[in-house]
Structures are given as structure tokens and as C-alpha cells.
């Protein structure tokens, strides 16, 4: 296995005070974590809703929460407070080839 150094994709970090008090980054990170938790909970609620009207209401709230989560992620990424690892092209190609034979098992061809 090739031991390549992982590459982080990240914007320059916006500095915030680092002390015992919560700063802007801390607040946004807390909101992002809460939105992630909420979208998981709404997803479960939609899966278990027996009433179509309730399902539609929760679905609307889920979509709003998902949009909020995405906006918070974008804000954190823009400010350099959230980083991701660059995808290794060779690993992506290997994974694609591994699962490309599974298309006949998928419900949609």
C-alpha cells in the first residue's frame, strides 16, 4: 500500500480569540453539530411517520435544516475552520472499479 501524505483542503483560517469564552468559531461549530443531529432525527421521524401530512411537514423542516447545515458548513469551510482530506484519485478509481460490477444488483439501472 502506498503511504502518501494526506492532503488537507482548507482555506486560510480566520483567527478568533482562544480563551475560555466561546468565540464565533465555537458557536458556529456548535450550531453545525446541532443541525447534523437534527437532520438525523428528522430522517428517522420521516421513516417512521404513518401519516402523509405529518411526513410532508417533517420533510419540509428536514430540508430547511439540511440547508442550514450546508450553509454553516460552507461558512466554517470559508473561514478555514473546517478542513477535508483531498481524495486520492487512485483509491477512488479502485473503489469505482470494485463496485462497478454491482450495477445489476441496484434497483435503478
UniProtKB/TrEMBL annotation:
<dbReference type="InterPro" id="IPR012851">
    <property type="entry name" value="Spore_coat_CotF-like"/>
</dbReference>
<feature type="compositionally biased region" description="Polar residues">
    <location>
        <begin position="1"/>
        <end position="22"/>
    </location>
</feature>
<feature type="region of interest" description="Disordered">
    <location>
        <begin position="1"/>
        <end position="23"/>
    </location>
</feature>
<dbReference type="Pfam" id="PF07875">
    <property type="entry name" value="Coat_F"/>
</dbReference>
<protein>
    <recommendedName>
        <fullName>Spore coat protein</fullName>
    </recommendedName>
</protein>
Amino acid at each position: 500500500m502506498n503511504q502518501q501524505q494526506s492532503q488537507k483542503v482548507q482555506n486560510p483560517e480566520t483567527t478568533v480569540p482562544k480563551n475560555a469564552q466561546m468565540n464565533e468559531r465555537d458557536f458556529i461549530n456548535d450550531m453545525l453539530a446541532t443541525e447534523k443531529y437534527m437532520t438525523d432525527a428528522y430522517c428517522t421521524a420521516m421513516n417512521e411517520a404513518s401519516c402523509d401530512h405529518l411526513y410532508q411537514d417533517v420533510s419540509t423542516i428536514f430540508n430547511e435544516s439540511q440547508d442550514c447545515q450546508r450553509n454553516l458548513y460552507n461558512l466554517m469551510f470559508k473561514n478555514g475552520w473546517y478542513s477535508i482530506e483531498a481524495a486520492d484519485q487512485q483509491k477512488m478509481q479502485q473503489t469505482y472499479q470494485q463496485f462497478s460490477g454491482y450495477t445489476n444488483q441496484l434497483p435503478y439501472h
